[in-house]
Amino acid sequence: MTMPSNQIAPLLNFEMLYLIGLGLGDAKDITVKGLEVVRRCSRVYLEAYTSVLTVGKEALEEFYGRKLILADREEVEQEADNILKDADISDVAFLVVGDPLGATTHSDLILRATKLGIPYRVIHNASIMNAVGCCGLQLVNCSIINQCFYFSQLYKFGETVSIVFWTDTWRPESFFDKVKKNRQSGLHTLCLLDIKIKEQSLENLIKGRKIYDPPRYMSVNQAAQQLLEVVQNQRIRGEDPAITEETLCVGLARVGAEDQKIAAGTLQQMCTVDLGGPLHSLIITGGSLHPLEIEMLNLFSIPENSSESQSVDGLRT
């Protein structure tokens, strides 16, 4: 029986492609196993377009003791063969902020490697998908009976959605259907906010000029403003929106970093909240909250003024 390449590799110690998660915080969030692999690989690539760490490339190089090769979207999606070159005769590492399989692009890299007969191994790490529990919203439903915890199979987070930067001619609202579906099921919605790194304007793209716009990262308040516009558009069309200005939301910034910030309040309040630099995420709560969730969110309620905070107990969910 022939074994898949990713199973043969650990047994025979073949040279291979490693996809290594870096976690969410800083250079030290890499796992011990991941760091050992990085230090022995012949080439180490740093994926630089689906997410960013709070520290720069230089800080990573200093801690890892290795030079890193930046891999942008064009390099990974159109010139992946450069990354995979000689990975069958020497170890090559591909570093990803968060978990390596958080983006479909990285699965494509695995498929390309497999077609070329190159073994691979994935070294996982924390990502926003599991670290989102830092705000106090439960990842699973739980109850306590006779001092024992019982976890049901109904996860409290529904399908994750992405909110992209709108343009003058492109203002997609299709993601809102998933928010509505989650809300109808009493599930929270994690919204991943847009990142624009090494993007070209339409004019530069048409003229073939290698000129790139400055990086842009969507903030919680920008996402909230777009969500409110979707709500207004649905009302104009005579539809009943899944959320309102008073829906309870949670803003997250730089999760996993030492300066992580969390804010809980209405969608309207999220339009003016300032959580600082990237990366940001937004949670739209769904249905009724567990008492522990309410108690935790009260720790992060948006201040009405400098001296007191508003309780989330009375907010609409």
UniProtKB/TrEMBL annotation:
<dbReference type="InterPro" id="IPR000878">
    <property type="entry name" value="4pyrrol_Mease"/>
</dbReference>
<feature type="binding site">
    <location>
        <position position="99"/>
    </location>
    <ligand>
        <name>S-adenosyl-L-methionine</name>
    </ligand>
</feature>
<feature type="binding site">
    <location>
        <position position="255"/>
    </location>
    <ligand>
        <name>S-adenosyl-L-methionine</name>
    </ligand>
</feature>
<comment type="similarity">
    <text>Belongs to the diphthine synthase family.</text>
</comment>
<feature type="signal peptide">
    <location>
        <begin position="1"/>
        <end position="27"/>
    </location>
</feature>
<dbReference type="GO" id="GO:0032259">
    <property type="term" value="P:methylation"/>
</dbReference>
<feature type="binding site">
    <location>
        <begin position="127"/>
        <end position="128"/>
    </location>
    <ligand>
        <name>S-adenosyl-L-methionine</name>
    </ligand>
</feature>
<protein>
    <recommendedName>
        <fullName>diphthine methyl ester synthase</fullName>
        <ecNumber>2.1.1.314</ecNumber>
    </recommendedName>
</protein>
<comment type="pathway">
    <text>Protein modification; peptidyl-diphthamide biosynthesis.</text>
</comment>
<keyword id="KW-0732">Signal</keyword>
<keyword id="KW-0949">S-adenosyl-L-methionine</keyword>
<dbReference type="InterPro" id="IPR004551">
    <property type="entry name" value="Dphthn_synthase"/>
</dbReference>
<feature type="binding site">
    <location>
        <position position="193"/>
    </location>
    <ligand>
        <name>S-adenosyl-L-methionine</name>
    </ligand>
</feature>
<comment type="function">
    <text>S-adenosyl-L-methionine-dependent methyltransferase that catalyzes four methylations of the modified target histidine residue in translation elongation factor 2 (EF-2), to form an intermediate called diphthine methyl ester. The four successive methylation reactions represent the second step of diphthamide biosynthesis.</text>
</comment>
<dbReference type="GO" id="GO:0017183">
    <property type="term" value="P:protein histidyl modification to diphthamide"/>
</dbReference>
<feature type="domain" description="Tetrapyrrole methylase">
    <location>
        <begin position="16"/>
        <end position="269"/>
    </location>
</feature>
<dbReference type="InterPro" id="IPR014777">
    <property type="entry name" value="4pyrrole_Mease_sub1"/>
</dbReference>
<dbReference type="InterPro" id="IPR035996">
    <property type="entry name" value="4pyrrol_Methylase_sf"/>
</dbReference>
<dbReference type="GO" id="GO:0141133">
    <property type="term" value="F:diphthine methyl ester synthase activity"/>
</dbReference>
<keyword id="KW-0808">Transferase</keyword>
<dbReference type="InterPro" id="IPR014776">
    <property type="entry name" value="4pyrrole_Mease_sub2"/>
</dbReference>
<dbReference type="Pfam" id="PF00590">
    <property type="entry name" value="TP_methylase"/>
</dbReference>
<keyword id="KW-0489">Methyltransferase</keyword>
<feature type="binding site">
    <location>
        <position position="280"/>
    </location>
    <ligand>
        <name>S-adenosyl-L-methionine</name>
    </ligand>
</feature>
<feature type="binding site">
    <location>
        <position position="102"/>
    </location>
    <ligand>
        <name>S-adenosyl-L-methionine</name>
    </ligand>
</feature>
<feature type="binding site">
    <location>
        <position position="24"/>
    </location>
    <ligand>
        <name>S-adenosyl-L-methionine</name>
    </ligand>
</feature>
